[in-house]
C-alpha cells in the first residue's frame, strides 16, 4: 500500500493536478482503502463504493470548502472523507471516539451539514445558495442525493422552492435503482424508463463525442436558462424530465463511473445560472463483486471477510428484537386479516421481509416517506384496517405531527413499532433513538410500552393490537436477552408493571433495556449489603403509579432508568407525578437516562458506560447517593 496516489492527496485541490487516467487509478486505491477498513469496522460499503468516481469528479472541479459539496444521508461519503484529509484517521471509521460514518461539520471544514436522515440536503443546499445570494458570494453549491432519498417529501418541497427561485445550484441525482432494498415508487419506475430509453444509451455512448464536437456546448447549456433553441435542449435533455417542469435544467443520464464524462458534464452545469439536476447512473457496490451482487446486504454491513464477502456472524445465539417482532407480527396477521404492515423504505431493517412475502397485499412500503406512512396509516384505520407502522425511532421524528394530528387526535387504532429505540451504536447521533419517549409521551391518547426482553415484546405487540387508540412499542437494536418465547401471547394489563426482584433499600423503576442494567446494578449492590428492588415498568404511558408510590413509601431511594433523553423523559414524568400527588413519604429520586447533549458513535456497552447507565454506573451513583444520605442523616 505504499506510494499510492491517495497517500499524496492532502486536500481536494491536489486532484486538479491529476489526469483522468490518474484519477482512475486513485478511484481503485480509494475502493481498496474503503474495503480494507469496512471489512474490519463495518459500514456503508455499497453506497460509498458507488460514488467514488462521482466524488472524484466533484472534488476535482470544485474548490471546497469555499464551494459546498453536500451528501444526502451521508452514508456514501467515505471517498469524500479520504480526499479531505482524513486518510490518517480512516481506520477509526464508526469507532468509539473515532471518525463518524457520516459528514460531520465538527470533524472537517469540508463537511457541510450533519446528514444521516434522508432527503434534507436539497433544502440545506438551497439555504446555502440563498445565503450566498444575499451576501453577494460566488460559491458553487452541489448536493449528491440518491434516487430513493430524492423521492422523500422534503426533497420535493425543496425542488419546488428552488425551481421557483431559479438560483444556481446543482442537484446530482445518484441513480442506482436501489434504496436499501430495491427502490420503490412511481419515481423509481419513471427513472427506470428513462435509463432504459434509447436516449440514455445514445447519451452514454455519444456523450464524449457530442461534448467534443460542440465547443460551445457548455455555453449553450447556461443559456438554456434564458430560453435557447430546442435543438440544443434536445441534445442535452433527451425526452421530457419531470424536474424540468419544476424549473430545473436537466442533463441526460451520465455514466457515473466514467470520470471524463462526469467531469465534462459537471464543468458545464457548474457554470449554469439556473438550478440544474444532473442525472448520474451508478452501480451500487461498484468494484467489489459481493457488494455488486448483494447491494442490500452491503448497504450497511458489519465486519466481513474481504476475500469472500462473507459477513462475520455475531457470537450471540439470542435473536434480534427486530426478527422477534417480524415473526410475532406474521403470527398476529395470520389470525387477523385486518392487520396491514407499513414501513418507510426499511423492510429488512424493521424485520418485515417475511410479512411481505406471506401477505404481499397487506404489506406497504412507502419509500422514504415517514410522514406519508403515518398519515396513510390513519386513512387505513379510518377505513377499518389495523395498521402496524414499523419505523426506526430516529426516523419517526419526521412524522410526529402526523402521529399527533392524524392518529392521536381522532384516537385511531394504529400500532407504532419504534425499532432501534435507544442508542444504536456505530451510526451515532443522527441515528440514536433517544427522543421517542419524549415525543410520544406528550401526545394525548397515546399508550406506550417498552419490552425488557423478547418474550415481553411478543406480549406487548399482542396487547397493542387488542387496544383501542394509538399505541407505541419501543424496542432496541440488536440482540435480545435470549429468553424463551411464549407459545401463546398474552394481553397485558394496561399500566401494570412487574417486579423482577424484591428489595427494600432502593427501588429501581426501569424501562425496556434498562431493566437488564438495573438487575446488574442490583447484583453489584447486593454484594455490598444493599437491598435493591427492580421494577420492570413495562408501560411508559400510562405508567404504574401504584408501583411508584409503593417504591416511594417502602424504600429510602427511588431510581428511574430509561434509555432516552432525560429532558421530557419518563423519569421526569414520575417526578412530576410524585410532586403533584405526593405520598406520605417522598424519598430522593435519581433519574438515569441520556443527558442533554448529543451522544456520538460507539458500541453500546461503551456508550452506556460513558453515560453512566450501565450496571456499574447505576450502582456507583446509587452507592454515592446512599453515602451522602447517610452522612447528612
Ligand atoms: C428519513 C430517513 N428514513 C430512512 C432512512 C434509512 N435509509 C438510509 S439510506 C436509505 C436508502 C437510500 O437510498 P438512496 O438515497 O437511493 O441512496 P443509495 O444508498 O442507493 O446510494 C434509507 C432508506 C434514513 N436515513 N432517513
Ligand atoms: C444510512 C442509514 O440510515 C441506514 O443505512 C442505517 O445505517 C441502518 O441502520 P441499521 O444497521 O440499524 O439498520
Ligand atoms: Mg439509490
From TrEMBL:
SUPFAM superfamilies: Thiamin diphosphate-binding fold (THDP-binding), TK C-terminal domain-like
GO CC, alphabetical: cytosol
Any single GO BP term: terpenoid biosynthetic process
Catalysis performed (reactions): D-glyceraldehyde 3-phosphate + pyruvate + H(+) = 1-deoxy-D-xylulose 5-phosphate + CO2
Pfam family for this entry, one: DXP_synthase_N
Boundaries of every Transketolase-like pyrimidine-binding domain copy: 319-483
Entry EC number(s): 2.2.1.7
GO molecular function per UniProt: 1-deoxy-D-xylulose-5-phosphate synthase activity; magnesium ion binding; thiamine pyrophosphate binding
Pathway(s) it belongs to: Metabolic intermediate biosynthesis; 1-deoxy-D-xylulose 5-phosphate biosynthesis; 1-deoxy-D-xylulose 5-phosphate from D-glyceraldehyde 3-phosphate and pyruvate: step 1/1
PROSITE patterns in UniProt: TRANSKETOLASE_2
Alphabetically ordered keywords of this record: Isoprene biosynthesis, Magnesium, Metal-binding, Thiamine biosynthesis, Thiamine pyrophosphate, Transferase
SMART domains (alphabetical): Transket_pyr
Subunit architecture: Homodimer.
General function of this protein: Catalyzes the acyloin condensation reaction between C atoms 2 and 3 of pyruvate and glyceraldehyde 3-phosphate to yield 1-deoxy-D-xylulose-5-phosphate (DXP).
Name assigned to this protein: 1-deoxy-D-xylulose-5-phosphate synthase
The organism of origin for this protein: Slackia piriformis YIT 12062
Gene: dxs
Amino acid at each position: 500500500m505504499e506510494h499510492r496516489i491517495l497517500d499524496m492527496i492532502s486536500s481536494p485541490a491536489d486532484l486538479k493536478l491529476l489526469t483522468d487516467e490518474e484519477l482512475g487509478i486513485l478511484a481503485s486505491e480509494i475502493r481498496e482503502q474503503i474495503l480494507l477498513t469496512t471489512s474490519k469496522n463495518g459500514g456503508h460499503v455499497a453506497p460509498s463504493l458507488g460514488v467514488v468516481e462521482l466524488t472524484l469528479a466533484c472534488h476535482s472541479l470544485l474548490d471546497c470548502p469555499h464551494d459546498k459539496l453536500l451528501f444526502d444521508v451521508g452514508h456514501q461519503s467515505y471517498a469524500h472523507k479520504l480526499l479531505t484529509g482524513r486518510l490518517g484517521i480512516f481506520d477509526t471509521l464508526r469507532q468509539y471516539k473515532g471518525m463518524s460514518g457520516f459528514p460531520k461539520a465538527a470533524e472537517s471544514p469540508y463537511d457541510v451539514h450533519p446528514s444521516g436522515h434522508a432527503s434534507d440536503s436539497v433544502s440545506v443546499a438551497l439555504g446555502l445558495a440563498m445565503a450566498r445570494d444575499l451576501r453577494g458570494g460566488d460559491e458553487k453549491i452541489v448536493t449528491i442525493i440518491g434516487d430513493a432519498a430524492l423521492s422523500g417529501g422534503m426533497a420535493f418541497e425543496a425542488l419546488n422552492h428552488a425551481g421557483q427561485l431559479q438560483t444556481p445550484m446543482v442537484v446530482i441525482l445518484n441513480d442506482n435503482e436501489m434504496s436499501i432494498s430495491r427502490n420503490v415508487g412511481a419515481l423509481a419506475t419513471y427513472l427506470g424508463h428513462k435509463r432504459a430509453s434509447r436516449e440514455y444509451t445514445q447519451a452514454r455512448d455519444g456523450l464524449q463525442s457530442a461534448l467534443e464536437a460542440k465547443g460551445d456546448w457548455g455555453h449553450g447549456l447556461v443559456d438554456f436558462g434564458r430560453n435557447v433553441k430546442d435543438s440544443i435542449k434536445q441534445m442535452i435533455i433527451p425526452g421530457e424530465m419531470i424536474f424540468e417542469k419544476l424549473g430545473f435544467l436537466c442533463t441526460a443520464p451520465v455514466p457515473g463511473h466514467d470520470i471524463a464524462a462526469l467531469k465534462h458534464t459537471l464543468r458545464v452545469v457548474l457554470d449554469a445560472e439556473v438550478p440544474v439536476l444532473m442525472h448520474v447512473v451508478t452501480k451500487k457496490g461498484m468494484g467489489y463483486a459481493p457488494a455488486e451482487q448483494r447491494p442490500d446486504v452491503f448497504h450497511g454491513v458489519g465486519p466481513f471477510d474481504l476475500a469472500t464477502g462473507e459477513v462475520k456472524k455475531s457470537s450471540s445465539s439470542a435473536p434480534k428484537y427486530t426478527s422477534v417482532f417480524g415473526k410475532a407480527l406474521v403470527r398476529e396477521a395470520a389470525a387477523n386479516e385486518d392487520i396491514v404492515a407499513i414501513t418507510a423504505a426499511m423492510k429488512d431493517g424493521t424485520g418485515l421481509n417475511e410479512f411481505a412475502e406471506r401477505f404481499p397485499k397487506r404489506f406497504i412500503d412507502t419509500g422514504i416517506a415517514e410522514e406519508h406512512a403515518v398519515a396513510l396509516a390513519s386513512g387505513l384505520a379510518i377505513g377499518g384496517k389495523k395498521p402496524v407502522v414499523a419505523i426506526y425511532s430516529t426516523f419517526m421524528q419526521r412524522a410526529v405531527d402526523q402521529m399527533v394530528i392524524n392518529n392521536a387526535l381522532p384516537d385511531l387504532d394504529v400500532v407504532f413499532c419504534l425499532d432501534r429505540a435507544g442508542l444504536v451504536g456505530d451510526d451515532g447521533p443522527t441515528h440514536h433513538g433517544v427522543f421517542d419517549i419524549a415525543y410520544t409521551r406528550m401526545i394525548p391518547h397515546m399508550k406506550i410500552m417498552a419490552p425488557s426482553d423478547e418474550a415481553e415484546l411478543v406480549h406487548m405487540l399482542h396487547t397493542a393490537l387488542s387496544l383501542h387508540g394509538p399505541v407505541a412499542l419501543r424496542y432496541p437494536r440488536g440482540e435480545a436477552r435470549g429468553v424463551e418465547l411464549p407459545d401463546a401471547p398474552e394481553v397485558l394489563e394496561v399500566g401494570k408493571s412487574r417486579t423482577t426482584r424484591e428489595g427494600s433499600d432502593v427501588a429501581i423503576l426501569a424501562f425496556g433495556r434498562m431493566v437488564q442494567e438495573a438487575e446488574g446494578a442490583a447484583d453489584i449492590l447486593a454484594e455490598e449489603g444493599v437491598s435493591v428492588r427492580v421494577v420492570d415498568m413495562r408501560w411508559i404511558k400510562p405508567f404504574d403509579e401504584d408501583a411508584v408510590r409503593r417504591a416511594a413509601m417502602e424504600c429510602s431511594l427511588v431510581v428511574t432508568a430509561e434509555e432516552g433523553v432525560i429532558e421530557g423523559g419518563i423519569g421526569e414524568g414520575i417526578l412530576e407525578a410524585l410532586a403533584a400527588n405526593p405520598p406520605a413519604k417522598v424519598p430522593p429520586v435519581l433519574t438515569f437516562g441520556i443527558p442533554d447533549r448529543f451522544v456520538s458513535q460507539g458500541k453500546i456497552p461503551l456508550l452506556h458506560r460513558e453515560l453512566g447507565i450501565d450496571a456499574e454506573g447505576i450502582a456507583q451513583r446509587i452507592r454515592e447517593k446512599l453515602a451522602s444520605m447517610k452522612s447528612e442523616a
